[in-house]
Write a structure and sequence with these properties.
Elements: H1 2-52, E1 56-58, E2 67-69, E3 75-76, E4 85-90, E5 93-99, E6 104-113, E7 117-125, E8 128-129, E9 132-133, E10 136-141, H2 155-158, E11 161-165, E12 171-173, E13 176-178, E14 194-201, E15 208-218, E16 224-226
Antiparallel strand pairs: 1-16, 2-15, 3-6, 4-5, 5-15, 6-14, 7-15, 8-9, 10-11, 10-14, 11-12, 12-13
């Protein structure tokens, strides 16, 4: 009798384990079916939306001038002694700066801008901090005399200078800081005009260089039309 009871108990335990296994399998099958249904629904939704979304393509008009290239403005050296930085000519214009001293150096372009959208290109060479490129470029209020040396992070200069830091990717102006910006920056100041301002911070004993290569007054921005 004891042996028979043990056999029946084992059989009952085995049946219970089989039942639990079947329930788990059934639950998994239900989950699989549910996920499959959701995938099918998502695919159908994606296909439906793809037919309703307009295609984005650039508008190209060959009759419209994209911009006016500036061929007159030049850099101005705030270091009157010539011991901290010197200027060189590119295409007859003073558009290249060579920093020969480890110091905060801000070089200004004598180009006054008011309303409009401008595209600026600058080439930096050996302007590094540790193993990273450390460069800055921005704008300064017209009429503000940039001294030498000049760090725009200083509170006095920061009231007049806005710049993008190529090392951190942040925008700085006054005591404000916008982190990791990768979009165009729009600056509005009705009471004053502004000048293009080129600035970098030299932290190396090597000779660093940067060249102002291009300034374009865009007649129209880069436009993409949804149709």
């Amino acid at each position: 009798m004891i042996l028979q009871a043990r056999v029946e108990e084992r059989a009952s335990t085995s049946d219970e384990q089989a039942r639990v296994a079947q329930e788990l399998l059934r639950t998994k099958e239900i989950d699989i079916q549910r996920l499959h249904s959701e995938i099918v629904q998502l695919r159908q939704t994606a296909i439906s939306e793809s037919h309703s979304i307009s295609t984005i393509h650039p508008v190209i008009n060959q009759n419209i001038s994209v911009g006016v290239i500036d061929n007159t403005s030049q850099l101005e050296n705030p270091d009157l002694t010539g011991q901290g930085a010197i200027l060189e000519r590119i295409g007859g214009l003073l558009r290249k700066t060579i920093a020969i001293k480890q110091e905060y150096l801000s070089i200004q372009l004598n180009k006054e801008i008011k309303d409009g959208i401008y595209r600026v290109e600058v080439r930096f060479e050996k302007c590094k901090y540790l193993q990273y490129t450390y460069t800055r470029i921005g704008i300064v209020k017209a009429g503000y005399k940039i001294p030498y040396p000049c760090n725009p992070r200083d509170k006095l200069h920061g009231q007049h200078m806005l710049y993008y830091n190529g090392y951190t990717g942040n925008i700085y102006f006054k005591e404000m800081q916008i982190q990791e910006i990768q979009q165009p920056v729009f600056f509005k100041q009705r009471e004053i005009s502004i000048l293009i301002h080129l600035q970098f911070f030299l932290l190396t004993i090597h000779i660093s260089k940067f060249s102002f290569t291009l300034l374009i007054d865009l007649q129209i921005p880069s436009i993409f039309v949804i149709s």
